[in-house]
Structure formats: C-alpha cells, structure tokens
Amino acid sequence: xxxxxxxxxxxxxxxxxxxxxxxxxxxxxxxxxxxxxxxxxxxxxxxxxxxxxxxxxxxxxxxxxxxxxxxxxxxxxxxxxxxxxxxxxxxxxxxxxxxxxxxxxxxxxxxxxxxxxxxxxxxxxxxxxxxxxxxxxxxxxxxxxxxxxxxxxxxxxxxxxxxxxxxxxxxxxxxxxxxxxxxxxxxxxxxxxxxxxxxxxxxxxxxxxxxxxxxxxxxxxxxxxxxxxxxxxxxxxxxxxxxxxxxxxxxxxxxxxxxxxxxxxxxxxxxxxxxxxxxxxxxxxxxxxxxxxxxxxxxxxxxxxxxxxxxxxxxxxxxxxxxxxxxxxxxxxxxxxxxxxxxxxxxxxxxxxxxxxxxxxxxxxxxxxxxxxxxxxxxxxxxxxxxxxxxxxxxxxxxxxxxxxxxxxxxxxxxxxxxxxxxxxxxxxxxxxxxxxxxxxxxxxxxxxxxxxxxxxxxxxxxxxxxxxxxxxxxxxxxxxxxxxxxxxxxxxxxxxxxxxxxxxxxxxxxxxxxxxxxxxxxxxxxxxxxxxxxxxxxxxxxxxxxxxxxxxxxxxxxxxxxxxxxxxxxxxxxxxxxxxxxxxxxxxxxxxxxxxxxxxxxxx
Length: 605
Known about the structure:
Blueprint: H1 15-19, E1 25-29, E2 35-39, H2 49-52, H3 59-62, E3 71-77, H4 80-84, H5 91-101, E4 105-111, E5 117-122, H6 128-131, H7 144-153, E6 158-161, H8 164-174, E7 181-186, H9 194-208, E8 212-219, E9 228-233, E10 238-241, H10 247-255, E11 277-281, H11 285-288, E12 299-303, H12 306-315, E13 319-324, H13 347-356, H14 359-367, H15 375-393, H16 397-406, H17 409-413, E14 417-420, E15 424-428, E16 433-436, E17 439-444, E18 454-458, E19 463-466, E20 470-473, E21 477-480, E22 485-490, E23 500-501, E24 506-509, E25 512-517, E26 520-521, E27 526-528, E28 547-549, E29 554-555, E30 560-561, E31 566-567, E32 572-573, E33 578-579, E34 588-590, E35 595-598
Helix pairs in contact: 5-12
C-alpha cells in the first residue's frame, strides 16, 4: 500500500486514490497546502494497485519514448488574441483546436470559483479559455484519471496536458498506450502551494477592499518578459504586478520555498520525456530569430514521440514556427534537467507564519529584499541622475537656471523634480503648487540640435501633480490656468519601460485634468477641459468640465479629447478621433465624433 513516510516521495498526483476500488485512500492537506494520501487500513485489502500507479515508484519503467531525441520548434499561434491570452505562444490552444475539430476531448487545469485548481476534461470548445494558461499552483486530479480512461475505452479521442509527474501518473494508471490519446506536459520548475496562491489573492482584498474575480499569470499587457500577474477585482479595478514588484513571483523565483517537497528531487527531469509533446517558454528566442520575438510570448515545442510528430503535422497550419536545434533549448530552460534548489528561507517557519500573518507581513519577513541601498548603490544613483540632467539640459545656462529656480536641491537628489530640457519656456507662478513624486522630464528631444520649443504655464493657485516618472517630448504646450489642477500619473511600479508622451502634446487645463498611470500619448494629441471662455445659449452648457483619463489608456496620433470626457482604463483612442463623450474601459473608439468600434481590447505596453 501507499505509505508516505517521506513527503519527497509523493508528487500529489491523486492517481492512487482513483485506482482504489475500495475507497480506502483519502487525501489530507498539510500546513503547506499540499495533499498526501492516507490509507484507511480497515478498508484496504493490500491489493497493491496504488503502488502500480505511483509515478515515482515506477519512474524507471515510465521514462521512455520512441524518438531517440526530441524534435524542437519555436512557435506562436497565428491568432494574436490567443497569444495575448496564453502563458507563452498559444501552442496548447492550437493543439486543442485540432482535437476539438476531430470531435475529441481536451483536459487540463482550470480554476474553481475560489481559485483552487482542478483538472477538467470536455469536448466543448467554449471551455478552452479556462483551460488555457498556466495556473502556477498544484491541481487536484481526483477522478480525472478514471474519466480519461473511460473516454479512451469508449473510443473517444483525447488530448490531456499537465505537470510531468501528473502525466507520468496517467501513463501508469492507463497501463498501456492508446492511439487515440495525446499527452502533453510542460517544462516545470516546481509546483506551488495552492494555499500560498489563495493567500496572495486574498491580499488584494486586504489592500484594496474588494475581492479578486479574475487572475492571470503572465499577462502580456506589459510584455511577456515582465512576468506580469494581472488581477481584476469585483469593483472593476485591474491591478498589474510584474516580477520586480510581485511578492508572489519573487517568492517563487528567489526563495524556492513555495514548492512541493518532491520538486527538490524531481524524478521527471531530463530525457527521454514521457509525454508525446512538451511545451515551455522559449527563453532566448531573440538570439535564434528576432522575427519570432514580439515580447508577447514564444513557445518552445518538443516533439517526443512518433505519435506527437503526426499530431503536430495537423497543428502546423495554425502556427508561425521555425525548427530549432535540440542543443539550443537547454540554456534557457534549466528546469528541463535540473531539480529545484533547496529553499533559501526557513520552510517550516515560513508556512507557520503564513497561517498567523497577513500576506504583506509574510512578504516583508521572508520575500522582500533589504530596502536600504548600500553606499555604492547611492553613489551610482547620484551619478545616473547627474548624467540624466546633463543629457536633457545639455548644460545650457537657461535650462540649469530653470532647474534650480523651480526645484529645491533636496528634491532633485530625491528624484522628485521638474527637469527642463533645452529650449523650454516655463512660467510657473510663485503661488502655484508643484507636487512632484517623480521626475517630470520636459521637452526631451530625439534630435539634439532641434530648437522646437516646449512650453509650460502654471498660473496662480494652480496645481501640477506628478505621481511618478514621466517624459514629455519636445513641442509640448501645457497650460494650467488659475486655480486649476493637472495631474499626471506617470509610470506605474509595474512599468519598467517608463512612460512618455510624444511630440507636440497639447494640454489646456482650466479646471481639472487627470491622466492615469502608464498612459501612452502619440504625436499631436490635444486634451482640453474647456472651450476657451466661449459660451452658448443652451441650458446646461458649461465652459469647463473635468477630463479624467484612466490608467494604461492609449491615445493615438492626432486625437482630441474634449471637456467632460471620462476614459476608462485600458481604452484605445484611434488616430485623429474627436472624443466628446465617455469611453468605457478596454474599448476602441475611432472617428469624428468618436464611436466605439471594438470592446474588451487588450494591448501590450
């Protein structure tokens, strides 16, 4: 019988529970959030079936395939919508498309309503979006193996994807290969605790007062390489956390503490692969073929069996792909051959504290790095700042004078200041209120010899607020009239690429203009909250009306945003659109006057 005295000898695949006809095996979740089999000895008949399906016990017999060496490809789905919604290049969706087309069944991991994870199988193509994308925590396969076996015995075609250990367990459970079965696995660094994932998602309600309704690892909206986790809350607000700010990702990649005990001595590394097809991120693809790298995700495909080769021939028409040398895949995917290194923090204390503390407290204690910079780091930061000032001002006397006139020296060294480039004209009233929480680079040039003027006016009692770093390119005309407020969000913590507005941006603010974080503004864009003091003989007419532009909005070349307009986060305003009414989140509008032409649109920054 299965008797796990050592947790490293159990991968939590649930196969032993499915094979037991006496229901003698149940699964108990430990303090870490992982489940392990427990045998009811009163029900157990010592038949030994549980041991025959254990992938770890039987790994030597299972680790085989009929290709001497895997055939490797870099690929991306031809449908960009699929790529955006996928962890890598959308190849699993292409595999699934063929199976659905052949009236077969597709199985993989899905989220339950509470964001626990289970394996699920159906022949309904509408289920593909929930099967798509990695979930990054262990899935429950209770009952799954029996369901797959029944489908295969009934002659149904089946495609299944899961962790290497889970797919090895499926091989063991079935006891033979079925011609109507395609097994896909993926390159697995280690499987995370479901308990930790739940704690991380709960932290959003703790921080923002609303529960999570959507979770997506590796959201593409800030690029594939940023490993952005996107969550949407019940209040409709979206949050993006890249690998540099996401404490969950940092815990996984930097502490090695989140994974199951069996992951530190994984029996399913190396070759031959047990699955017919292995999927992964193709890290390093930019060195192989720049055309395959859009920073939207490129998949590595390893074909491991003759059956996998035949199936891939059916899939090729849905993909852009190139064949790559076998040796090229190893450098970017060390998890192919290497087990996870031991935890770098006290594992026992970590999971005990996960029960006692908030997520933020656990992160502060175990995950976040020392926030106090070293002397060397401080010197480097100052040198970079001085180089930036030199580059933008070109050390012109007028620019240096304006820099010192409108900023306190301590704010400059704290990187909370207004930095005027050459040929800037600035008039800022002594009674104006400058709230600088980052660097506002004004008049930045691509052509260093250009004399194109950049203008900034902030009148009496007006407020100019900058939430984080922002670059306004040359030719801008920014006017904040008496008592008005202009607020720039700048770049978010998730945006490592910076935030900038292109040349000839015009903002005329007579009451209030708010521009959110990570807003992208093209050339010759105009934003104004007023009609220049002109009045119409119409009831309810207002000369000024605030303009509110949400986070991560894209304003394309030549568009105009008029007074009173509210634009929801993630929306796209088409080139030369004239916007006079509100725009919903993630909508695409175009025309004069602007009209909605598409909805639920996502775009990569």
